[in-house]
Structures are given as structure tokens and as C-alpha cells.
Amino acid sequence: MNHSQIFTVTQPTQIQFGTGAISNLAETVKSFNGSNVFLVVDPGLVEAGLISPITAPLTKANIPFTIYDNVDPEPGLKLADKGTKIAKKAKCDCVVGVGGGSAMDVAKAIAILLTNGGKAVDYLGLGLIKEPGVPKIMVPTSSGTGAEVTFTAVFINEKTGSKGGMNGDPLYPDATILDPELTMSLPPHVTAFTGIDALTHALEAYTSTQAHTISEMYSLEAITLIADNLPAAYANGDNLEARSAMLMGSLLGGKALATAGVGLVHAMAYPMGGMFGIPHGLANAVLLPYVVDYNLIGDMEKFAVLARVLGQNTDDLTLRESASLCVDALFNLNDDVGIPATLKDLDIPFDAIPEMAEIALTVTRPVENNPRKPNLKEVIAIYETAFSGAMPF
């Protein structure tokens, strides 16, 4: 333990976890004095007829609600602005976000805009939100983003094409309801890349320069849960035990990143989403082993610990050999759950790499958190490595 380190932990979100917990939604809304709900949902849930477990408790309690399903996998700022206008017109006083990170981010932004005014673009950055939002309750239906317990909402700026986040304590959800049964219908490929996304949050928080005793505790437990259960959840989506473990792993990964931040994987994933529409979790998943390989010399002791947590036998190995096994474990896990091996597999054009690298380095907080400080040449080299699958580091 670093006794000289000063750190702050702010995690105000009420957490309800367990099979059938969604039945408490109406009671939770009422506990925050909500009487008219703005329901932000992933459109896929509506299309698949999976929204009834969410709406049934509200209907039973005679709580009116307005459904807003205009949510993209990589949402733009205008979606938050449009949703805010609809919520105001409907006189909604509580926002519930249901789905993956995109729906929850849009929900968090709408809750803030309802009380702060202006447009979503006005709050991109850190600490620009002055007033608390209306009560906001998050209901994740995937095990990936951890957005249900973070103070960030990420969007694509339509004018610039870049991704950026609103960041500030008012964005912390007031409550989250995590019901593993709501994740059972998640398709295998989405289970895979959202699961590796959650793993990335926990791993990058663990090796962050801002890591501390509490964040490390969250990170290691999250990594253990995800590594032990993702293959089973991917192979059989009806495995409730694996689904429950994945949802808890995602939650703990979110709590870790909220207190210690993420690193270079996230910075490099942002332009892949902004320029080519690659889902954030998938971009993270493909990049993760390559960035870790680059980062090894930044904190070999921690990467050796991670190798062991990921199931590698490091007996009688040098520190460097042990740390390197972390990379092997990540490649193996990706392969087990069908994650594409390279950027080429995602149809990312090779000639876009220099521009992506320049954009990645502008995502300053994750770059600053990274255990190894990258320059432009090195980021380009990582992208090129991830494009070809070669390992030069």
C-alpha cells in the first residue's frame, strides 16, 4: 500500500442486484419522488419485444412513462438534445436508462439537460455541469460498460466527428438495478465484446497511474469474474450463474474506472468509433492485447499479477516472462469468444492510422493514466501492429 498517495472515492449510486430485481423499478422511481418517467431504451429491446419486464412494474404502479428509443450504438449529441425536448414536453421528472452504455449515456445526459439547460455539446469536458439532474436510474441489459455507476456520458460530436465525454459527479446515477435475467437474450457476439469491454475497464484501471487500494480491489475481482465466466456466458447465454457473474464483473469494472480512470486502449478506441462506427466494446477488445504488449515495461509487476489472475502459470519465470503471459492470456480469451484478431478484420483502412493516432493522443486523461507514456510514432506503431497482427514490442 502506498501510504503517501492521496485519493478520493465518490460513488453515490444506490445498487440493487439480483434475479428479479427489475420488479423494484416502480418503488425505486417513487423513492426519488419520480412520478412521470422518461424511458430511454436500446431500440433492439423494443424490436425484440423485450421491453415488457421494464414497463410492467411502472404500469402496475400507475406511473406514466414515455419511451424514447432513438439511440444509436455510437450516439451523437443530437440524440440527447432531441430526447430532452421530448421529455420536457411530456413533463417527465425522472429518467430511466435501459440497455447498454449508449442508452445509459443518453439517459444520463438528458437528466442533466432537463435541469441545466443548453445543449449537450455545452457540457463536453470535465466539471462543466453545475446543477444536479432529475433523478436517473440505470438498468443495464448487457455486461460491459459499467455506465450504471460512472460519472461519464460519451458521445460523437457530429460537427467534428470526434468522440468526447461529459464528465462530472452530477452524472452519477442515483440508482441502478442489475437483474441478470435481463442479460439472458444478449447474442453471443455482443456478449463477447461487451464482456471484453468490461475486462478492459478493470485492467486499465488496475494499471492506471491513478490506481489505489480501493480501485485495485474492484479491478482484480472484476477481472477474476469476467475471465472465469465470459466463455461460459458466450457459449450458453442461458447460463444464469455465468450471466450473474458477468454483470457483477461489469459493475465492479465500472466502479474501478470511475475511481482510477482508463488508459491508452480507450484513447485509441475512440477514433475507431468516431471515424468508422466500430462499437466501443469491440474496438477495445481488438486493441487490448496489443496495447498491453506495448505497456508491459511500464509496470511489469502489475502485469505479472494480471497474468496469474487470468489463469497463467508463472512459476519459475522471470518478471518479464510472467508479465508477457498476460498478453498471451488476452489473445486466448479473445479467440475463445470470437473477437476478430486484427483491425484489418474490422475493415479499418491502413491509411487512416496516422489520423487515428493523432486523435487518440488528444484524449488526454486516458493517455495520462497510461502506465507507459506514448508518443505519436509509438501509437502509430501499435495501430499498425494491431492491423497486421505482428508483435514488434
Task: Summarize the structure in words.
By secondary structure, the chain is an alpha/beta fold. The chain folds into 2 domains: 14-183, 3-Layer(aba) Sandwich (Rossmann fold), CATH 3.40.50; 188-388, Dehydroquinate synthase-like, alpha domain, CATH 1.20.1090.10. Helices cover 50% and strands 10% of the residues. The model has no long low-confidence stretch (mean pLDDT 95).
Using brief descriptors, characterize the structure shown:
three-stranded mixed β-sheet, 50% helix, alpha/beta, six-stranded parallel β-sheet, 393 residues, Rossmann fold, 2 domains, Dehydroquinate synthase-like, alpha domain
Provide the succession of SSEs: EHEHHEHEHEEEEEHHHHHHHHHH
In the CATH hierarchy, the architecture of the largest domain is Up-down Bundle
Amount of helix:
40-55%
Largest sheet, in brief, is: 6 strands, parallel
Question: The CATH topology of the largest domain is what?
Answer: Dehydroquinate synthase-like, alpha domain
Q: Biggest sheet: strands side by side, in what order?
A: 1-9-6-4-2-3
The N- and C-terminal alpha carbons lie at a distance of 30 Å
Rg (C-alpha, Å)? 20 Å
The overall pLDDT average reads 95
**Overall tally of structural domains:** 2
Tally the helices: 15
How large is the share of residues in beta strands? 5-15%
According to CATH, the homologous superfamily of the largest domain is Dehydroquinate synthase-like - alpha domain
Return the CATH class of the largest domain: Mainly Alpha
Structural class: alpha/beta
The geometry reads as: globular
Number of strands: 9
Poorly predicted regions are none
